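In response to reviewer comment 3 from the previous cycle, which asked for concrete evidence that the modeling workflow produces usable outputs, we include below a single protein chain processed end to end. The sequence was submitted unchanged, and the resulting C-alpha cells are shown without manual editing.
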Amino acid sequence: MTIAEIKDALPEYAKDLKLNLGSLFNNPGMTDQQVYGTALACAYASRNGVLLRAIAAEAEGKLTDDAITAAKGAAAIMGMNNIYYRFVHLVSEKEYGTMPARLRMNIIGKPGIDKADFELFSLAVSAINGCGMCIDSHEKILKQAGLNKEVVQNAVRIASVLHAVAAVLDAEAALSA
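The workflow returned the following C-alpha cells.
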C-alpha cells in the first residue's frame, strides 16, 4: 500500500489524519534525510506493517543506506532507552537515577550519519514512546547543534501523525479480522 492508498483507506472519522498525512512530507527547513529518516524511525516505532512498508517505499531513493540504518537504529535504541529512562524519571526512589544503566548504546555515539539528524530521529521516537527525560535530553542536544524549534516541532508532528495513523490501521484491521 502506498501513502496515497493509506490515506484513501482511512475511515471518515480519521479525516484529520488523512489531511495531515497528505502534508506530512512538506516541511520547509528540513532536509530529506531529516524528514524521511524521522518518518522511517517513527514507522518502525509505531509497529504497523502496512504503514512501515509505505514509509519505507516513500523514503526509497531519498535516504542513503546509512540513513536507513540510522533510522532503524534510532527506533531500536529508543525502544530500550525510553522504557529504562521513563522508569528512572517516574519512580519515587531517586537512587535509580544515580546507578549506572549498564545498557549498550554505541549507535548513539556513532550513528553513521550527522549526529543532529540521529538525535532528531531519536527525539521523535521518544515522543511516541512517551519518555520525557529522553525528549528533554534530545531536544537540548538539537538546540546545541543549531536546529531551530520549527524543525523539532516538525519532527514531533511527523511522529504524532504516523503513530495515530498506525493506531487507526491497527484498530480497523482488528475489527475486520
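The two ends are 18 Å apart (CA to CA). We consider this sufficient to address the reviewer's concern, and the full set will be provided in the supplementary archive.
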